[in-house]
Amino acid sequence: MQEWVNKQHHPCRKWLNFQHHSTSRILLTGLSAFFFLSSYIPLIKLDFWWIRIFDYPRFQKLIIHLLLIGGWWLFGDDRTENLIWTSLLGIGSIYLFFQVWPYTFLGKRMIDRVPYDPQKGIHLMIGNVYQYNRKFEKALNLIRQRDPDFIFLVETDQAWADAMEPLHDTYPNRILVPLENTYGLVLYSKLTIVKQSINHLIDEDIPSLELDVRLRSGQIITIYAIHPTPPVPNENPTSTDRDAEILIVGKKSKANPKPSLVIGDLNDVAWSYTTSLFLKVSETADPRRGRGFYNTFHAKIPLFRWPLDHVFLSRHFGLSSLKVLPGIGSDHFPIELKATLTANDTTDTEEATPEEEVEARAKIIKGHENQKADQD
């Protein structure tokens, strides 16, 4: 027994215990400082990818804040230091909670639920298939199972366009823009396409779609289908192009007197400043508000999931259903929505202030200037 006691008080043992404690404290302090600052980095209104990337994992940062608070209570031994860090992390937790709570059941719904009417409604499915995914049959089986009126798939190369040919009999109206640069688009519709255009709103290599569709009731609606570039260092070091394209479509939707939807992989999360500005500029509604995150990315990494694929509705629609569908081998889950035209306005949209309108125009102008500079 005496020998064991002596070992515990051996100078080497004390030094090792000190080193272990010191390392844990340094690690806890470093993580706390990093994640506390990461909560507020998105407030910096600069377009650099290393700033905008912090928009995405806000719920994950909230969970990490709470875990770090627990870490300080369990492993911190300096009362003053514990109080400082738990207070800072507590403030950060409250801030992050209020950032994400509108996208939980606690938030206020922007759009009311209404019964689905196949005559006055549209049943659509959208998904990023991941260009190098070759599980074509999984996608076909899911489409046949869900049987939507309207399908919009992105990251579709020629192999994907060829693999989807079995849909041609069921979906006689199609727009196929297969590309090898991960920005190909394919669209299939049972409903009549009255008018269509393939646009390149910012980048000549990045297409988007604008089309008028006739519902079974005869009503014409407009669908804007987009897939702007993400802010990542190996593709686009800023979010300028993405933000500009999203806001251009938002202005188009607001100016359009017809009922409209904006759909696609926006490469932006629902709670980012750009998406919030888009909602105000377009005066559309986000069906996620008051219902849940409906995370669509990353399908293969459960701890890193957030809502990247979207459907926004003009005030003419009520929401009938919204679902994230099973995976098809992609890094995104497909998402499905049923919406129905309503006689009364069932949405609670937001309006942009004059200052926000000016900011949106400035972002659009900057996007055009960036592309002109790249071309020169």
UniProtKB/TrEMBL annotation:
Transmembrane segments: 26-46, 58-76, 82-103
Domain Endonuclease/exonuclease/phosphatase span(s) in chain numbering: 128-332
Alphabetized Pfam families for the sequence: Exo_endo_phos (PF03372)
Keyword Membrane: yes
Nuclease keyword on record: yes
InterPro entries: Endo/exonu/phosph_ase_sf, Endo/exonuclease/phosphatase
Domain of life: Bacteria
Keywords on record: Endonuclease, Hydrolase, Membrane, Nuclease, Transmembrane, Transmembrane helix
Record-given protein name: Endonuclease/exonuclease/phosphatase family protein
Lineage: Bacteria, Pseudomonadati, Bacteroidota, Cytophagia, Cytophagales
